[in-house]
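Researcher: I'd like a candidate sequence for this fold, 424 residues long. If you have to choose between options at a position, lean toward the conservative one.
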């Protein structure tokens, strides 16, 4: 049975809802198109977020605990919006997703390329993807070729004999998708669609120039970091590393012998990757692990905390860069990298990444949202906001991905990538 089921749940035209299933937080947001603003601006009318329980790196570890977290987040958002939800868009962790590229081709008639031809190529890609243990999340065109003329971004309106497309397919294991679907169903909600988390973060935080010229979005999450690379307006690669902000918190707890809750507090108050000559002279008070008395504390120099934070942050950034090099995305996406997610707010992380990677780095916050309070404008809301933007585009678009066998020979995307690498 195909678990990818768009449009099986009726959706209101004016309301979009999303649930971000993070390892640190569960966030639910409700929005409608802001008719008072220009462009595709969304007005967030309800937000609820809860500490995440029962899920880690996209894998459900405790079904009932996750159900409670989702219900609490949804209830808060519904109360704020004064709306009742029946279907939501749900994030999929990049840790559970896989990227594939596939070439498909279609013989053309006498007329120009139109939407039906594009739809046929997408349907052909979906049908050609044969992995029994995987379900498709996205089928996205990366580039087109018309009669062996490569690098065509939009072939509609052009004439030719043969249209070829390189498709980026993002998939997820059957069991993972089924378990998440079941959990959402237990919360009396339907799944309107799945979106891989860093892709959603990119939709929320990137502007059109960045998407066109090439950019990588790195969603610095709690238990993992999701990576999404964009080129010429298309998502071309998805990846992840199994390290995130929670690992920094755990290191602080172990290194300073303090409870996890206090370690998170110390990270928030004093955590930074920027060393200072005054760190040795400045002391911080650390509650002791296992002591019942509130006054059971000890003092440590701030330099020790900074050393712990910086060491793990450097390891995280080094692993991300190795993954980008392995995939070839380190050069293809140009000089631009956008950090987002909760851990991107760690002081000094942008400067450290810029120093290590020799790239232009910025911290990305959601663009094109009104209302919802201050939380909506923070990088922590990026994935949830991107889900809302995807929901709006999905509902307004007539071209839903739906299929031809892969072309024998060199992969079209790889040929384009090779040309780009040689000419950078």
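Model: Candidate sequence:
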């Amino acid at each position: 049975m195909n678990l990818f089921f768009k449009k099986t749940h009726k959706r209101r035209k004016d309301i979009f809802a999303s649930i971000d299933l993070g390892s640190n937080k569960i966030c639910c947001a409700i929005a409608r198109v802001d008719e008072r603003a220009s462009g595709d601006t969304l007005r967030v009318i309800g937000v609820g977020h809860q500490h995440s329980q029962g899920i880690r790196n996209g894998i459900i570890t405790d079904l009932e605990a996750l159900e409670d977290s989702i219900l609490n987040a949804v209830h808060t958002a519904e109360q704020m919006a004064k709306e009742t939800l029946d279907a939501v868009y749900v994030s999929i962790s990049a840790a559970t997703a896989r990227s594939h590229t596939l070439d498909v081709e279609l013989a053309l008639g006498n007329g120009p390329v139109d939407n039906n031809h594009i739809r046929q190529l997408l349907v052909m890609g979906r049908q050609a993807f044969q992995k029994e243990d995987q379900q498709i999340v996205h089928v996205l065109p990366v580039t087109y070729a018309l009669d062996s003329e490569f690098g065509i971004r939009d072939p509609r309106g052009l004439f030719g004999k043969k249209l070829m497309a390189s498709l980026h397919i993002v998939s997820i294991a059957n069991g993972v998708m089924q378990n998440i679907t079941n959990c959402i169903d237990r919360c009396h909600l339907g799944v309107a669609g799945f979106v891989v988390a860093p892709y959603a973060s990119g939709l929320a935080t990137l502007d059109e120039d960045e998407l066109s010229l090439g950019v990588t979005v790195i969603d610095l999450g709690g238990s993992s970091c999701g990576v999404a690379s964009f080129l010429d307006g298309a998502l071309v690669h998805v990846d992840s590393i199994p390290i995130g902000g929670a690992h920094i918190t755990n290191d602080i707890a172990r290194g300073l012998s303090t409870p996890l809750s206090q370690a998170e507090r110390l990270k928030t108050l004093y955590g930074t990757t920027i060393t200072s000559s005054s760190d040795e002279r400045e002391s911080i008070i650390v509650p002791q692990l296992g002591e019942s008395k509130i006054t059971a504390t000890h003092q440590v120099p701030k330099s020790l905390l900074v050393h712990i934070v910086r060491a793990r942050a450097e390891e995280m950034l080094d692993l991300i860069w190795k993954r980008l090099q392995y995939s070839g995305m380190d050069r293809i996406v140009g000089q631009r990298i956008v950090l987002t997610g909760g851990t991107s707010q760690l002081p000094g992380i942008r400067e450290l990444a810029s120093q290590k990677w020799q790239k232009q780095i910025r911290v990305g916050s959601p663009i094109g949202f009104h209302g919802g309070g201050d939380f909506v404008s923070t990088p922590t809301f990026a994935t949830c906001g991107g889900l809302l933007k995807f929901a709006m585009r999905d509902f307004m678009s007539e071209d839903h991905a739906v299929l031809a066998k892969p072309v024998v020979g060199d992969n079209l995307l790889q040929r384009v990538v090779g040309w780009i690498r040689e000419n950078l």
